[in-house]
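Hi support team,

I submitted a single chain yesterday and got back a structure, but I'm not sure I'm reading the token output correctly. Could someone confirm the output below corresponds to the sequence I sent? I've pasted both exactly as they appear in my results page.

Thanks,
R.
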Amino acid sequence: MKVVPKDVLGAIQDGQIHTLTKGFGLGGGIGYGKSCAISALLKLGLARWAHASSSGWDFRPTSRRTPVISWVNWPNTADQLQQLATNGNAVHSLMYAIKGANILVIDDLGKERLPVIREDRSIPFCQAQLDIIIDFRNGHRLPTLWTTNVDEKSLVAVYGPATYTRLIQDNPIDWVGARLRNLRLQ
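Hi R., thanks for writing in. Yes, this is the structure output for that exact sequence:
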């Protein structure tokens, strides 16, 4: 909880998840609980939102729309976008769903860039799609929560300084690796 920006954490705890305009990133080693932490925060935020949206024991929804949360595993999404690249309508539909969500979680950012599993031609396409997503979300003040196992220098090398700067502009990253143990090895 100490690495989550205070205004984001406050909105989540107050049941105001639908009002978020900023997100954050968590970076660190594999198995340190970054994705689990974001999942727990979103679960808390939605539970508090649901409670705040109902009156007493009447759990009928109010006029407030349920926040749309889109969780994408970036390596899988990058593969899917690459496979759909020749079908403009399919790419457009997928991109619309990703970039327009009230809250977007991009999990494992940078992992798809490993040259062992990627063809050279897929790199610029996926980089361009990420740039489009981040640019749209920043312009519409939509929060992006993201995780990575890749260090900042590598993220800049992979996505370029412009995309990385836009990503961390409203979604700053904090590195948790030095503070936690690998939970998968316990």
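A quick pointer for reading it: The beta strands are 24-27, 69-73, 103-107, 144-148, 173-175. Let us know if anything else looks off.

Best,
Support desk
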